[in-house]
Amino acid sequence: MDFSFLTNYHMFFINGAKITILLALFTVALGTVIGVFLALMKISKNILLKGVASIYIEFIRGTPLLVQLFIIYYGLPMIGIHFPDIPALGQNFGDFMAGAVALSINSGAYVAEIIRAGIQAVDKGQMEAARSLGMPHGLSMKKIVLPQAFKNILPALGNEFIAVIKESAIVSIIGIHDLMYNADTVRGNTFQPFEPLIVAALIYFVITFTFSKLIGMLERRMNTDART
Amino acid sequence: MPELKPLIEIKQLNKHFGKLHVLKNIDLTIHQGEVVVVIGPSGSGKSTLLRCLNRLEEPTGGEIIFEGISITDNEHDINKLRENMGMVFQQFNLFSHMNVLENITLAPKKLKKITSEQAEKRAISLLEKVGLVEKATSYPAQLSGGQKQRIAIARALAMEPDVMLFDEPTSALDPEMVGDVLSVMNDLAAEGMTMAIVTHEMGFAREAADRVIFMDEGKIVEEGHPEKIFDKPEHSRTKDFLHRVIHI
Ligand SMILES: Nc1ncnc2c1ncn2[C@@H]1O[C@H](COP(=O)(O)OP(=O)(O)OP(=O)(O)O)[C@@H](O)[C@H]1O
Ligand SMILES: [Mg+2]
């Protein structure tokens, strides 16, 4: 195997990795916001909210990410939504946003289920005890249920973050210059179909491994705080 | 016991879970300072009755009046009413992410107009009362069942309720820990706290109760002074039940 192409092409991998991480951060942020709203809708007593959230979650989880990506990529312009190109953020900001929005819409459905399960895993007696003391529902949720749910949610949310990093490679299809896209470019330019993929795989692994260690540290920190 | 004013009046209370009719036309008045013990077979509706009193369960019919205010008409803030009704659960339900002191002071700090110092001072005196001052900074996971339940009682008392509801407070405890919890409850009764207690501790019921209620299949079958219920029960169902729980 010959990795000498790295002398000329290493910036392709570094810039691609930057886009991949940026995309993942954006997706986790927006996906979490979507997920929190969907989860709250799904555990609410309002049948309409519950129904909308359920349909959203089932639909997203029951269709391929690739199809969702294309629907957003070709669909948003058709209904008149254009993201402006912002040169400071790369030449294809509109594409980047389409990819990020598609990934977020997808991830939001999974995050919603993680949050819902985390909240519902908190013993019902905790809420009842809080309510029996006279604490209103919102306050009980905030002080008692959510802090405990957070501990259930964090590990699963970490896994979802890592899944997002890996699945984000799919956006190379719509021309976003992420790690996968740039690795492809290097393959074409150097006529080496194999080695650039090894480099890309290693970089993906370093990114996900680092995040999973960071999340593990955060979890341990929280557990010693609560001493449970 | 001198005739005191009614604290809780239950009128024609009904509760359905779907098709299941769990409470059937319950009429019951609990007076100030009275200790009422509810006994009866499993599934007879004892917990449901207690949970209707602070509306952890929504009654499907009838009326409950607490301190002269209807708690079933939705005109009054149920949260305010609950502040005056402490509840102790079979499974303790201590807030597992908070230490003992935080468990006790959370609700008073949030709901009463008192400073943190006042809330903590009061919490410490309650911990003295239940004999667990040294556990103030422990977490629930570090306590035995009996200790958890005594903390749960202190937590409920911290809101200075006018009545305490106990749902089988000793049923989840190892036998050697039951005594500690019952003695805290006895102290409370001696201080004049109004209490409604569901329990299978017949010895405690006989000693501490002013009145014993026997429930079966969602109805109050028989009620009266403990000596009457335990020594001269009138209904065959009461006799059967007592025979089973006392002689096995
Ligand atoms: N949330 C609920 N949904 C449906 N049915 C319920 C619910 N809670 C209680 N029930 C039913 O209502 C009936 C009375 O239950 P309850 O818990 O009040 O009995 P109990 O007298 O406290 O019994 P135990 O001594 O076993 O605690 C039972 O048949 C029970 O299955
Ligand atoms: Mg019960």
Overview of this protein structure:
The complex is a heterodimer of chains A (228) and B (248). Chain A has 228 residues and is mainly α. Chain A has a domain at 23-178: Orthogonal Bundle (MetI-like fold), CATH 1.10.3720. Chain A is 79% helix and 0% strand. Chain A has eight helices and no strands. Chain A has helices at residues 6-43, 47-61, 65-78, 93-120, 124-132, 137-167, 179-190, 195-226. The longest helix of chain A has 38 residues, at 6-43. The model of chain A has no long low-confidence stretch (mean pLDDT 91). Chain B is an alpha/beta fold and 248 residues long. Chain B has helices spanning 46-53, 78-83, 100-111, 116-129, 145-157, 175-190, 202-208, 226-231, 236-246, and strands at 6-17, 20-31, 35-39, 61-66, 69-70, 85-88, 163-167, 194-198, 211-216, 219-224. The longest helix of chain B has 16 residues, at 175-190. The two termini of chain B are 33 Å apart. At the A-B interface, helix 5 and helix 6 of A face helix 2, strand 6, helix 3 and helix 5 of B. Bound molecules: adenosine-5'-triphosphate (ATP) and magnesium ion. Adenosine-5'-triphosphate binds at residues 17, 20, 22, 40, 42-48 of chain B. Magnesium ion is lined by residues 46-47, 168 of chain B.
- Oligomer class: heterodimer
Structural class estimated from helices and strands of chain A: mainly alpha
Amount of beta strand of chain B: 25-35%
Specify which chain pair forms the largest interface: A-B, 21 and 28 residues
Kindly state the mean pLDDT of chain B as a whole number? 95
Q: Can you count the helices of chain A?
A: 8
Whole-angstrom Rg of chain B: 18 Å
Distance between the termini of chain B: 33 Å
Run of helices and strands of chain B: EEEHEEHEHHHEHEHEEHH
Mean pLDDT of chain A: 91
Note poorly predicted spans of chain A: none
- Strands of the widest sheet of chain B, in order across it, are 6-7-8-3-9-10
Q: Ligands bound here? A: adenosine-5'-triphosphate, magnesium ion
Instruction: State the low-pLDDT regions of chain B, or none.
Output: none
The Rg value of chain A, from CA coordinates, equals 21 Å
